[in-house]
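Inverse folding, one chain.
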């Protein structure tokens, strides 16, 4: 059985109904699904995406700036919590996939898809072993949440599998989904522009979401309905 967003909602609603939650490190109740796997076929699980904020975050990622104050406007509490006293974090996803510092992974994945469209190696790796030294340096609390994303061309569609260490259902999923959809659509556009005349154009496939720990915090229980 392949889970979809509707199934994920049902699971969390059921868990809340029977008070199936854990107490997290801050002392608040948290509903969690360990080993979650589903097709990301909707932009939100609970709540409504803020396109205004999503646009700001996308621009910030594309800037590759690692200071959260560069997002503009009121910085979300989650980013404030993750940042050190100067506003620095590790998780600017644009820097991770676009920069020379991290081996220009976007370009390498595009090249791999063009050369080996049936392959299994087109991966962008977000997390890294050095995160054990970096996640709390100078007061940070930012152990990168996305582990890796791998892309597959099958039946002339580009699919991706998003593998996450941790994902907040309410705010985290909505913004992470928007980023992954943006990257996927960009790869499709660039692939179609660069492919040989003998190759078919590709279109949008599925985003498969795999999370080691998918969770809802107590402050968002009122949305689980």
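Residues assigned per position:
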């Amino acid at each position: 059985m392949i889970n979809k967003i509707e199934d994920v909602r049902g699971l969390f609603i059921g868990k809340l109904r029977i008070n199936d939650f854990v107490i997290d490190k801050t002392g608040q109740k948290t509903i969690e699904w360990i080993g979650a796997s589903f097709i990301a076929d909707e932009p939100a699980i609970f709540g409504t995406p803020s396109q205004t904020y999503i646009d700001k975050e996308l621009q910030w990622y594309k800037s590759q700036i690692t200071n959260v104050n560069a997002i503009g406007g009121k910085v979300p509490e989650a980013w404030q919590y993750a940042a050190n006293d100067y506003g620095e974090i590790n998780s600017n996803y644009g820097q991770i996939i676009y920069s020379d510092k991290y081996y220009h992974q976007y370009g390498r994945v595009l090249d791999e898809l063009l050369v080996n469209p049936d392959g299994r190696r087109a991966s962008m790796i977000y997390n890294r072993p050095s995160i054990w030294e970096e996640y709390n340096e100078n007061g940070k609390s930012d152990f990168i949440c996305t582990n890796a994303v791998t892309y597959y061309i099958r039946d002339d569609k580009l699919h991706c599998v998003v593998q996450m260490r941790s994902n907040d259902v309410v705010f985290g999923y909505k913004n992470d989904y928007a980023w992954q959809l943006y990257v996927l659509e960009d790869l499709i556009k660039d692939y179609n522009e660069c492919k040989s005349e003998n190759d078919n154009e590709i279109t949008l496939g599925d985003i498969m979401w795999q999370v080691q720990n998918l969770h809802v915090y107590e402050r968002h229980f009122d949305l689980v309905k």
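The chain has a mean pLDDT of 96. Strands lie at 22-23, 29-39, 123-125, 146-154, 157-164, 167-168, 203-217.
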